[in-house]
Amino acid sequence: MNTVETIQKQCQLLRLGAVAYQVEALADQAAGEGISYLQFAQRLLESEIDQRRERDLERRKKAAHLPARHRLEQFDTTGQENLPPARLQQLKELSWLDQQFNIILMGPPGTGKTLLAAGLCHQAIGQGYRAYFRTMQELVDILKARELSARAKTDYRRLCKAQLIVIDDLMMTPQSSTEANLFFHFINQLHEQTSFVITTNKSPKQWVEVLGDEVLTTALLDRLLYRCEVIQHAGQSYRMKHRKSIFETLS
């Protein structure tokens, strides 16, 4: 076994995967540049740190459950009077997250609410925040199953430690009394330590119709709207505007 193979084996034992993979190339580069031993050691460690950061980012993105379209570069502010480019830039800077503000994105289906919410979640993950994306139905299912399912229990614990939770399609469908209470207690538990980004096609006044309890709805709104920016989306549905036809495909 030569020196390179020995070092690679030692790196594997120490779980230094990036160093094991790059040690020979970095050694050749260092020899060509004539750098010091300390500079060479620094490059080795930097390669390991960079790879671990990349792996950690991928793990957190996977745990977030982001939808396919989740990059803010894809969001079009054209026609969004309440969200010009300057305001979008402010949202991207995430100062509102540090101040534990909530954001409610309200408007008709297809106007970019989910893309914007997912994009902010993706932005937060990239900045090192613990951020997750769930539909309201997924969240309710987790809350109902957390005492019965190990997976749901793990997901619930993860959400309870979040700095940002995106709840997509809030109040889309009516909730049972049990579901409404579970949802309220979840928000009540986290509202002073976690920021929420919420997408909904219903105004807060209509939420009582979904939850079926005016007192609970009022208490929920009190917690979510205390420190909150409500952004009204407008315009034609992106999906309807760019809809496909089988006849176009076949022609």
Give me a quick take on this structure.
One of its GO terms (molecular function) is ATP binding. The protein has 251 residues and is of the alpha/beta class.
Write the layout of secondary structure elements.
Blueprint: H1 3-13, H2 17-33, H3 37-64, H4 85-93, H5 95-98, E1 102-106, H6 113-126, E2 131-135, H7 136-145, H8 150-160, E3 164-168, H9 177-190, E4 195-200, H10 207-211, H11 214-225, E5 228-232, H12 238-241, H13 246-250
Parallel strand pairs: 1-4, 1-5, 2-3, 3-4
Molecular structure report:
- There is one protein chain.
- The chain is of the alpha/beta class.
- It is built from 13 helices and 5 strands.
- Helices cover 57% and strands 10% of the residues.
- A 5-stranded parallel sheet has the order 2-3-4-1-5.
- Helix 7 packs across helix 9 and helix 9 packs parallel to helix 11.
- The longest helix has 28 residues.
- It is elongated and about 75 Å long.
- The N and C termini lie far apart (64 Å).
- About 4% of the residues have low confidence.
- This is DNA replication protein DnaC.
- One of its GO terms (molecular function) is ATP binding.
- Belongs to the IS21/IS1162 putative ATP-binding protein family.
- InterPro entries: AAA+_ATPase, DNAC/IstB-like, IstB, IstB_ATP-bd, P-loop_NTPase.
